[in-house]
Specification:
274 residues; alpha+beta; five-stranded antiparallel β-sheet; globular
C-alpha cells in the first residue's frame, strides 16, 4: 500500500531530475494554439534545454530548468504563464483530460471539444477538486474507438451525436446526454475526492477504492470497437506528424504545417488540422 501522495510534476511543483527541473503543462484534449507553442519554444530556449517534450497523456514538458531549492525562479514561472497554458495555479495538476485528437475535425460521433472545455472549467472552479491526485485521468472518446483501450479514472464514449456512456474506473456507468456530460464527470470526480479522504495512503485512482463509486451497468451495444492509435501522415481532417521520442525541437517545429491550432496526441505526435 502506498503511504505518500503522488508526485506528478507541474510548474509550481517541478520534478528534480539529473538535468535540472522538469515541469509539465497540461493541455485539455491536447489542444495547443500555435501562438502558445511558439511562445513555449521561446521560454524553453531561455529557461530550459530548448525543446518541448510530448507525453503519452498529450501533455507537454520542459526539461533542464534551473533549480532554485526545488522550485522555479519567479521569472521562469511568469514566462510559462505568458504562454496561456497555465490558466489555474491551484488546479494545474488535475487538468488531465485526454480526448480523441480528431474530434470536431473529422470522423467520430460527436464533437467533444465543448464537453472537455466545460469539464476543465468545472474542475478549475471547484476548490475541493484541486486536491485530486495528479495521476487522476479523464478519457473522452468521441465514438471512433481510438481511446477505448486507455485506462481511465472517469470518462465517456460517445454513442451518438447526443448520447454517451460513462466510464467509472474499470466499469461502465450510465448512458447520459452529452449536454450533461461535463457536469456528470465533475460530479463523479467530486464523489471520488470525498471517498478517498486526505491521508497519505489515500487512493490515487477510482479502481483503488474499496467499493463502487457509481452504479455499474452493462456495456451499451452501440460502443465501438477499439480502433488503435492514429496513424502518422495524412489522415482525415489533417496530418498526424510524428515526433520521434516525443521530442519537439525548434527545427521540427519549423517543419510543422501552418495552422492556428494543433493537437498534441497521446502517440508522440502532433495532429495538424487541414
Amino acid at each position: 500500500m502506498r503511504t505518500r501522495a503522488d508526485r506528478c510534476p507541474g510548474v509550481l511543483r517541478p520534478w528534480v531530475a539529473d538535468d535540472g527541473l522538469l515541469v509539465r503543462l497540461r493541455l485539455v484534449g491536447g489542444r495547443l494554439p500555435a501562438a502558445s507553442l511558439a511562445r513555449l519554444l521561446q521560454v524553453s530556449a531561455e529557461f530550459a534545454d530548448g525543446s518541448v517534450y510530448l507525453t503519452k497523456r498529450a501533455n507537454l514538458q520542459l526539461r533542464g530548468l534551473a533549480d532554485h531549492g526545488g522550485e522555479l525562479a519567479p521569472g521562469a514561472v511568469a514566462a510559462l504563464e505568458s504562454t496561456g497554458l497555465l490558466p489555474s495555479r491551484s488546479h494545474e495538476l488535475v487538468r488531465n483530460i485526454l480526448v480523441s485528437p480528431q474530434t470536431g475535425y473529422a470522423g467520430g460521433r460527436a464533437d467533444l471539444r465543448p464537453v472537455a472545455a466545460r469539464l476543465d472549467a468545472l474542475l478549475c472552479g471547484d476548490p475541493r477538486l484541486a486536491g485530486l491526485p495528479g495521476r487522476f485521468l479523464f478519457v473522452l472518446d468521441d465514438g471512433r474507438g481510438d481511446l477505448l483501450d486507455r485506462s481511465a479514472d472517469i470518462g465517456l464514449v460517445a454513442l451518438s451525436s447526443t448520447a454517451a456512456q460513462l466510464r467509472v474506473g474499470e466499469h461502465w456507468g450510465a448512458v447520459i446526454g452529452l449536454e450533461d456530460a461535463a457536469g456528470r464527470l465533475a460530479a463523479v470526480a467530486g464523489a471520488f475526492q470525498t471517498a478517498r479522504g486526505d491521508g497519505p495512503d489515500a487512493p490515487w485512482h477510482i479502481r483503488e477504492l474499496s467499493g463502487p463509486l457509481a452504479a455499474i451497468v452493462s456495456a451499451d451495444v452501440r460502443l465501438p470497437a477499439p480502433s488503435g492509435p492514429l496513424p502518422y501522415g495524412p489522415v482525415p481532417g489533417g496530418t498526424h506528424v510524428p515526433m520521434p521520442d516525443g521530442v519537439l525541437t525548434p527545427d521540427r517545429a519549423r517543419t510543422l504545417p501552418v495552422a492556428a491550432e494543433v493537437v498534441v496526441t497521446p502517440w508522440h505526435g502532433i495532429f495538424v488540422p487541414a
